[in-house]
Batch of 4 targets.
Target 1
Amino acid sequence: MARIIILMYHIIDMPKSAQEAKFCCQPSEFIKQMQYLAASDYPLLNLNDIASILSGNKELLEDSVAVTFDDGFDDFYYNALPILSRYKIPATLFMISNRIDQYNDWMVSKGSPKRKLLSIEQLNELLKAGVVIGSHTRAHPKLSEISNNTEQLYQEVGASKIELENILDIPINHFAYPYGLYNDDVVESVKQSGYLTACSTRSGFNRLNIDRFLLRRIEVYGSDSLWQFKQKMMFGSNEMSGLFLIKYWWFRAKSKLFF
């Protein structure tokens, strides 16, 4: 059965500190990864395509790949967009609606370097370039911790959608859970707000029977080599090492031996 692989990025830039290094894919590595995707046989999708496939309006004939970005750092505009455009890679970016043209305060409060987020002008340029914009809440909270507060949850989920729609004058159909945290109340709020899909941070492949509000993604770390990037796509796992592969093939061999 054909599968959809959704890749997740955050920052496309050199890390400014060890604390943020995991989330920083250096442009020199990002271009290698996008060159690989462009040269591969994978059909390349955005979240609009995935929504159409999962609703039965578009057929999934073979394994396909979507590239997504969380938070909306302005390095996307300067470092990622030129590479994506060069290799004709479709992309989806999840923006924090109440932090447009501001900074990553949710990270700075925990000791990470200050980084600029996209402006309205830059977001409009992304739309012209074909980038799909989704919501990543208004302020990047841990939604599972506020899910018992109906009004606060609505502000982060439903109001963020409306806010982006008013600013950009487009429908906002896709959502990504900050920190990958959610519970039943959060998922229900996403559904009631009118989104078509929602992305988690749980790794794995997406098949046609996947819950479209719990889409799985494979996170690309700053330390990933091109070899690790390819292996993550092959095995659908965030963690990739020589030990992982040994264990994987050992269990495969064991299952064939005993069953």
Target 2
Amino acid sequence: MTALRHFFKHVFSLLPEGLQGRLEYRLRPSLSSGFGPLNDQAVRTNIFERLVTELNIGQIVETGTFRATTTAYFAQTGLPVYSIEVSPKFYEYSKLRLKSARNVFLYHGDSASRLLEICSQLADKERPTFVYLDSHWREYLPLRDEIEILSKHLPNSIAMIDDFEVPGDPGYGFDDYGGSKRLSVSYLAGSKTQRPFFVYFPAAPSSKETGRKRGTCVVVFNPELKQHLNAFDLLRFYGSYRAF
């Protein structure tokens, strides 16, 4: 049985990635029921829901759809959701999973180029945009490019970054791809933005978090949004970073 299973896995791996995604959705729907949205993290979920309400968020952008678990949760707000997935496999999987979500607009491609495209569509929106950055898992780490694009083309946005190091709290997990590819403040500070940006971290320690306990930070570019976040009890201000 093990040899037969390995044979079918090998055959499956030879299929085009998009077809793999469509078959995976049809044959293994339980794959989408692993960790829940936002890594099953209660503190992060509370931060998101309060930000949407208190800052009167008008639309949501996500980079890194994966299997659309968090995307489907975002869609429940009733707001327009724009999500980007670079993998043909997960893009096709998510297309099937989200086919009944009329307020979700799914994009295939790398996050930087697609984010720029989406920003051009949202530039005239009066209400702030919530942006969830979670596309950092391949060789190319797009986070700095994403921050630079938001700073220039969508400054009225609030960006939440997944898998980010929380200074002073090792209980929060984060991604470290070696060398300069460590999702940390020092990496983020190297972003060549056209305006200063302001960084916040969860006020709650990791011991109060649930689920996967992945670290996060929140970034804003607009001084007015900074004033709102300064009074937001779920986040703590960490620092301002100058434009290049």
Target 3
Amino acid sequence: METLVNMAAAVCALLALAGAAYYLLCVWAVWKFCRENKRVRAAQFAPPVSVLKSLKGLDPHMYAAFRSHCVFDYDEYELLFGASDLSEPALALVRRLQQEFPQRQIRILHCPKSLGMNGKVSTLAQMVPEAKYEHILINDSDIVAPPDYLQRVMSALADEGVGLVTSLYRGHAGRSVPSRLEALGLSTDFMGGVLVAREMEGGVKFALGATMAISKSVLREIGGLEALADYLGDDYELGARTAAAGYKVELADVVVETALPDYTIAQFWSHQMRWARNVKDRRAAQYFGLVVTFGLAWGVFGVVLAPVSWWRWAALAVVAVSRFVAALAIGRGVLEDPYVRRDLWLVPVRDFAALLVWLASFGRNTVEWRGIRFRVRDGKLKPL
């Protein structure tokens, strides 16, 4: 029995050291991204843009998010808000926006058709033909963006080889601890993984729902949004199909913010599980490789199992230092998240929670979305 415990402790310590190497890789990917963003773009590209938002329910700080889109430093753009039901409560905020910014092109579109299981994509697909301009930008309804957002996103499309532009984002947490854990995960882990994937895979091969800028011609070439109406991770699919068509997916040098609700523990678990099982379904090999990203948790397990072994304590020390360095490099160095330092003490809690989610995600392929349970298969939602 003692031999088995020592072997398990050794495995945990080795996984901790692998985790330390991964965290240092995150720091290197952050450095590469920041260095590249210091380069001045030679070409200025600012075509007229149609910004599309699908509405369903109310998000925290929703009006502030809408309002941030009316003060962009950009010559010509329109804001389109689509809803499947004209009694949608968020439309009252859009009408208030129209009154506050009468000079802006702000339109409400009724999108009653159901084209698939993903209601957001069904709405967006019906909005595209109504968009006035060739270039469209899709982002989530709770996104707060800086005034130079459109300028920095659209300039990346100056290169004709770029088919889609996406962006990193940070979370604006609510008051609950689960909400703060999710924001911390975004700012200290998930976005680091995006930057590592960018370096290891020779570019970004997916998109993030915080920003998806694309032309109608490229969108038609990859099958349109209608083809994504049954997919859970529509943002991932849009980027993956753009890359598969031979275009580059560019990561813009701008960070936006998404508002997170005051999750209960159950809501946090459900949301994390939905994300985890979708990634496992679409990127199985990479998802299994996430085992090394829980290095801090493995280091703790190693010393708990064999507390008298000095090298396991050394492994824990190394992985702890590298984890916190990476957290600050990503959260502060790239995302400029003002709350990372405040919540840094929650990193171990977040990492243990993430490990539990990762392990549990291998159990089944069912998810809960908007109160309905689905099975995820090949990225698509199948009703139970």
Target 4
Amino acid sequence: MHAGASTRTQPVPRSGGIEGNERLTAAVAVALILLLAVEGVTIVFLGQLLSVHLFVGVLLIGPVLLKLASTGYRFMRYYTHTPAYVDRGPPHIVLRAIGPVVVVSTAAVLATGIALLALGPQHRDPLLLLHKASFVVWIAFTGVHVLGHLRGLGAARDELVAAGHRLPGRSARASALALSLAAGVALALALVPLFGAWLHGR
């Protein structure tokens, strides 16, 4: 069952409740899709855009952590039997099945990328192979994940356009997204000195 009558009659929490969680998750997902599109272009033109690839790759860590937090929160509330989350129901069984693979492969791509950046090109083996292999797994499963959640991205539109009713917690959700992006940028800027070994090594 979708949102039950009991959940509609309850007062909306200051955080926006389950709909607020959905809007935050969708907004972060849209930001990630845009950043990943940029990262995809850098892969095609890696020779010319390696510095951008490194910068955006590190920047992604901030919004990825927020996405994991927002989806993890919904997971926790569902499995602790919070009525509104139970009434909304779980994702499709296929999306639930591939969820752990998406999370693990995402962590592997980011972790091996940071390790490569920190250790430098002289220590690329076997990390570079692991980075590429985890990326192949990630792109396959994340592609299915994104397609399965395309309809849910409309929640991001509802958060932005005037036609969408304003839920409590809108400013907090916007701040969370902005802070995740700012944290990613700050981390990328802090690691810029490590880019040189890879840029000059090529």
